[in-house]
Amino acid sequence: MIDPLFDDDPRRRTRELTPGAHWIPNFLTLPQQAWIVDRFHEWVDGPVPVRSAKVRGHEMSVKTLCLGWHWRPYRYSREAVDVNGNRVLAFPEWMLRLGRRALIEATGDPSAGDDYSPDTALINFYDADARMGMHQDKDESSLEPVVSLSIGDSCTFRFGNAETRTKPYEDILLASGDLFVFGGPARLAFHGVTKIHPGTAPAGCGLAQGRINITMRVTGLPSE
Ligand code: SIN
Ligand code: MN
Questions:
Q1: Does residue 43 register a pLDDT over 50?
Q2: Candidate of 65, 124, 211 to mutate for ligand 1, largest count of ligand atoms within 8 Å of Cβ
Q3: Contact 51, 44 (CB under 8 A)
Q4: Is the pTM here over 0.90, yes or no?
Q5: Which residues contact 80 (CB under 8 A, 6 or more apart)?
Q6: Which residues contact 215 (CB under 8 A, 6 or more apart)?
Q7: Residue 200: Cβ within 10 Å count
């Protein structure tokens, strides 16, 4: 029998903010988070260093590195042409599996991940002062869902609507280990990070300060 008070079914903890926008707190365990942070340090030492992309001449406060395809404002390429020209690391197999599991958990549909093949990941690092203004993820030519994972300090994440960067929107506290998926009618919703909450990274997550966010996406570009 399932006790309604103590049922540990993770789906009970999920919340759909708007149709297609799913929030799943505590999706990643602390050891999983720490393992991913170890990978982050390897990626930082890889062929393309982490950097602040320039949007219309202004450096973003967030630092980004990419896997699979390199993102720069408004487009993707295999080589980091605005950094050092090197090809980015391949999109890892484990991340593909994690992305599929994320969709299953978000939707409760065991087949939700079957056709999901993200081919790029943007890994963003936020220090205590970093922010991300309201924007749409629309540099991809595919409308497959975006899978977002957070590690380290909590942030205030603002998730809105697809028509305007203003209200209606909702502010939620995305914490270490949380999953957020936006697809379907929410795929082109405006969203942003209005605040990092320093000192909130849990012990054992692998990151003493700052926040890492990984977003997996499907570029819609040909694989070669
Ligand atoms: C993004 O919008 O690409 C990143 C969102 C986040 O850091 O949670
Ligand atoms: Mn985004």
A1: yes
A2: 124
A3: no
A4: yes
A5: 47, 48, 66, 70, 72, 86, 87, 88
A6: 121, 122, 124, 137, 146, 147, 148, 149
A7: 15
